[in-house]
Every structure is written in C-alpha cells, then in structure tokens.
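Pasting as-is:
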Amino acid sequence: QVQLVESGGGLVQPGGSLRLSCAASRRIFSFYTMGWYRRAPGKQRELVAVIDSSGRTNYADSVKGRFTLSRDNAKNTVDLQMNSLRPEDTAVYLCNIQSADATGSRSDDWGQGTQVTVSS
C-alpha cells in the first residue's frame, strides 16, 4: 500500500490559479498510472488528469488547455497546475496511484483529498 500526501488546495477567485501536489510515501517499484480525480458536491467522482508509466497524459475534456499534470520520478510526486479556474472546478481533489510492488502485487491507493473552492 502506498500512502499519498496531498497539498495545495484552497479558495481562489474565478480565473485564478492553484497548484496541487501529491507525494508518495515511499519509492514506487512499478506504477501504472498516477494522477488526480475530483468529487464535486452531489456528483460522482471523475477523472481530472492521469499520467502513465510511459509519460502519456489523459485529461478530462473540461480541463484540457487549463490544467497541466507533471510527474517527478525521482521524488515520486505528481503536480497539477490549474489555471483559469471556474466555479464548476470546485470539488475535493483526490490523488490516486495504481502500482505494483516487487512481488507483482497490485494496489490502487487514494489520498485523503484536498478542497478546491473557486468563488468570488
């Protein structure tokens, strides 16, 4: 199991920016995807952006061109730069990693979430 520590949420005005960071508690032996999901009030959890082991990224259509995901392999971190934020981006943002340990045992781990509120 991998523990994930998230930071960077907060309150921002529409059009503003925030940067979320997620750090894994230990070195990852092998990972499949790492990234961010979000859960807005009254809605189901949805993918925001993920990166795979080849460095390919996948973004939700609603954030393309505004959000950028980056990963630091050496530090086992993944950051989400969010620009041009909108009120509909308000949600709890959750970091996720799908990985495997040295024995090949797979796990799907989540952070506790960080609140992002976009409001004037």
